Give the backbone structure.
Amino acid sequence: MKEQRDYESIPGTYVFDARRARDGYPLNMFCMSLNKAENRRSFKENSPTYMERFALSTEQREAVLQRDWLGMLKVGGNIYYTIKIAFCDGLTFQDVAGIMSGVSKEVYAQMMLAGGRTPEGNRYKDAARKDDERG
């Protein structure tokens, strides 16, 4: 059984720690392969076939095919690698950040210019822990 980390109780936080790095290695190496134009072409032409070159887990494969950006982070993807998939699709980092936040890229940009999301209600998944923190 995997040890629970303190930071895993923070909503929407998928820290790229040593465990995620190990779990995500095949996914991140797949993403790095997209640095080459011929690999991007192959991936765009037939994504499932191209991904067979890598030892992706079922969850990783599905996250890529569904363009589940948060899902990719959950299964060990590093945002700096997974964004290469978005670039293949003609998306920007801001597009993906908006998708992961559940808003348009324009709303996301305004939110960041205004100082980001409010931390209220976003500190811990476990309400009891949240109350303990208030003391």
